[in-house]
Amino acid sequence: MGNLNLKTNTKNLTQEINQFAFPLIASHFLDLIIAQIALGIAGRSSVESLSGISTIQNLLFALGGIFGAFSYAFTIKSSKVKSGKNNKKFLEYLLSSLMITGIIGVLFIILTIFGGRILLTLIYGFKGELLKKSTIYLLFMSPYILLILLSFNLTNLVKIEKKTGWIMKASFVASILEVILNLLLVNGNWGFPKLGIVGAAVSSIISLLVMVFIYFLLTKKIIFASLKSKPKALKELFSFGLPLAGQEILEGVLFIIIFEGVLSRLGVTTLAIYAVCAQVIAISKMPVYMYGNAVSVFSSEGLGEKNPRKVNQTYAFSLKSSYWWYFGISLVALILMKPITSFFSTSHVVQEESGLYFLIVAVCFLGTPLYEISKYQLQAREEEQFVLKMTFVLNLLSIGLILLLQQLGKTSFLELFIINGLTVSVLGIFFYLKEKKLREKTVIKPLLNDSL
């Protein structure tokens, strides 16, 4: 009878995780595909447009991840108090998180307006037409961080309530709007002005604004309720989120700023090939992050409920599912790589070489599911200091090696991605071993009916 109950509980949990993750995967698939369509519309006019938009998007995504760490801190902390029915503390976490978001978003807008051109020149070495187009695009994208952080906060509310189906609906509306706006504004169709790269930025910001508004309508009751509380958790969220932000900074510095900064100096064609591969591999890795979201909610709940069985099963199932998705999507992408590449670029060289380069990228990132799911699990256990320290050491070594190879003039696409992939894989192994050690220390109490 005990084994039957255990199997039933496990099945129910995996069903809950899938019901949580599938709408997120579907909505993010839609977002990514729409983003690729939008990038294709804006980037086909020139290699400079494709390279500039892709590079800035990756930079903004990295910064969104860094500052989004404070929203993630809200998810972990609020999931634990929510499972304990502590509504007062939950509202304090929400208001504090929203205040942190507002401060960061406004500061980023000011920084981008006054220092965007300098940033692109110093970090990426952009010049000429590429610098001109990229600076304009970054300027119009300046509200992105504020809006994306608001989106993180509001979607986290929806996730905690486990109503992720609404996220898919909101994403669908915003994504379709972005495509329509790109068709109208980028190339100036149906009497609208031809805005080019500016049209791409305006389309992204308007669609993101609409999505945030939809999330607000879904969560306005609890938001207004939080306004009646006090932001007593500001210091707690900041203290807990700071190591998480440090983790994202290290990843951002290595994979976005340093990595792409070195890569951009290998030539516009190489950067364009990377731009295509980066967009496609993002689709392969996307379900991993969605199951990571599930870990942050379900494992945090399990820890709040003092239910180690739930914590362990969430980790194991999320890791297995992540690998299945990664392998499946990468295989399909590899088969369809040439038609995918032709959508992004009219360059014959880019179209011919992207398939081989994508295979290299996909193999190098095989450690991503182990790394990401284990990282989410350790952070849910509030082992963020261990995650930060290990990431710091490994990333510092990797950055040093990349810069050394650059000074020796021996950097190439292959070498950069091997270093990238090894860093992720080694960190994944360390995180897995740490999680295994913590799991072995935990005594799992038998179910009530195990003795029957």
Strand content: under 5%
Helix percent band: over 70%
Instruction: Report on the biggest sheet.
Output: none
Number of helices: 16
**Structural Rg:** 22 Å
Average pLDDT level? 78
Given as residue ranges, the uncertain stretches (5+ residues, pLDDT < 50) are 1-6, 445-452
Shape: globular
**Annotation, overall tally of beta strands:** 0
Span between termini: 6 Å
Order of helices and strands: HHHHHHHHHHHHHHHH
The assigned structural class equals mainly alpha
SSE inventory with pairings:
Blueprint: H1 2-43, H2 47-67, H3 69-83, H4 87-124, H5 128-140, H6 144-160, H7 165-185, H8 197-226, H9 234-264, H10 268-304, H11 308-335, H12 337-344, H13 348-364, H14 368-380, H15 384-407, H16 413-441
Helix pairs in contact: 1-2, 1-7, 1-10, 1-11, 2-5, 2-6, 2-9, 2-10, 3-4, 3-6, 3-9, 3-10, 4-5, 4-6, 4-8, 4-9, 5-8, 6-8, 7-8, 9-15, 10-11, 10-13, 10-14, 11-14, 12-13, 13-16, 14-16, 15-16
